[in-house]
Write the C-alpha cells for this entry.
Amino acid sequence: MMLHQHLLFVLYSFSGIVIKGSQAQFPITQNVTVVEGSTANMTCRVDYNDNTSLQWSNPAQQTLFFGDKKALRDNRIELVRASWKELTISISDVTLSDEGQYTCSLFTMPVKTTKAFLTVLGVPAKPEITGLSRPAQEGEDVTLTCTTSGSKPAADIRWFRNDKEVQGQKEVNAIGRSFSVRSTIQLKVDRTDDGAAYTCVVEHIALGTLPHQVTEVLEVHYPPQVEIVRSVIVPQEGQYFKLECVSKGNPLPEPVLWTKDGGELPDVERMIVEGRDLIITTLNKTDNGTYRCEASNNLGTNRDEFTLYVYAKDFPGTTTDPNALMQPSPDHALIGGVVAVVVFITLCFIIVLGRYLARHKGTYLTNEAKGAEDAPDADTAIINAEGNHAHAEEKKEYYQGAARNVVHLKSENLGFANNYALRQEYVRCIM
C-alpha cells in the first residue's frame, strides 16, 4: 500500500513538471531573407511539447498550416515537416507582396506566439543605356542615361569608360514596393572618344558577385587627320622609296589624292599609288620636289606635305645605315653655351685690361706734368716724368752727353735727338 502511494506521488510530480515546462516555453523561429522568385522555408520549433499543436500564420493573420493540416488554399505554400516539436512550411516563387511578419503559435493555455520576419529582395532588371541613337560629331554634347527597375532595396549604378570609372548623377524613384534607379553622365565628345566603350554596371545584394552590366561603344564623326611617313631617311639615286599617307577620320577618308608640286604625278610608270601609299620604284634627281597627300570625308579635308631631295649615290656625308642614322647628334645647346661663356670671359678680360691701361696712362701723364713744372729744361722733365727723382741728375747728365754726341749722328737722326715732342711720344708708346 505504501509503495503504491509512493508511485502515484512520483508520477503526479513528474506530470506536473512536464506540464509546467510546456506552459513556460515559447516557440523558436528565425527571420528569413530570400530573393524574389526563390523559395522561403519558415521553421518553428519547441523543446518540449505535450502533444500541443503548432500553427503558422501570414502577415494578414491568415492561418497557413495548423499542425499538418493546410488551412489556406495557395499552391505555392507546402508542408515540409510537421511533428510535436517542429512545423516547417515552404513558400515557393516568392514575391515582394509575401514580405512581412509571420507568426508561429503554440496552443497551450495561454497560447504562446513568436514572430519571424520574411524579407524579399527585389532583383534589379538588366540595365539599359539611352542617348546613343546616332553617331555624335566632334565637339557635340552627349548625355548617356542608364536605367534599371524592380530593385529592393535601391540598386547602385557605376559607370566605366573602358577600364576607368567615371562619376554619374544618380536618381532613385519608388514604384510600389520596389525602386527605379537611373544614372546619367554628360560628355563633350572629341575624336579620342571614337570607339570608347561606356559600361553601366548595376550592383545589388540580390545579384551577389555577378552584377548586371551593359556596354555601348561611342561613335564620333570627325574630319580627317593626315601625316606622311617616309620609308627612307636619306633617299639616294637608284633607291626604292615609299611615302605612306597615314589618314585618320570618321568616316574613313577613301581614297587619298597624291600630287607633286601642285600638279599630277609626272611619271606614272615609276610613281605608283597603291591605296594610301606612293611608291617610287627608282629614285633620280627629277623626283626632287614637294609631294602632297590630301584626304577628305563629309566633314572636311586635310593634307600634309613632304619635300623630297634625292642625294647622289654614295654622296659624302650620307649613309643608308640605320644604326648610323640613329646615333645621337651633338648637343648644340651645350656647345653654344660653352662658346658664350668663352666670349663672355674674353670680353671681361679685355675690359679689365683696357681699364688698367687707361689708369696707368693717366698716372704717367700726371707724373709728367708734375715733372715738367719743376724741371728747368725738357730733358729733366722727361726724367722726372718717369718718377725717378733720386737719379735725376745722373739722367740729366746722360741726356746732355747724348746731346753733345749728337754731332756724330746722321742728319736724319738729329731732329729726333733734339725733338722733345718725339721723345715724349716715344716714352708714351713704350709705357
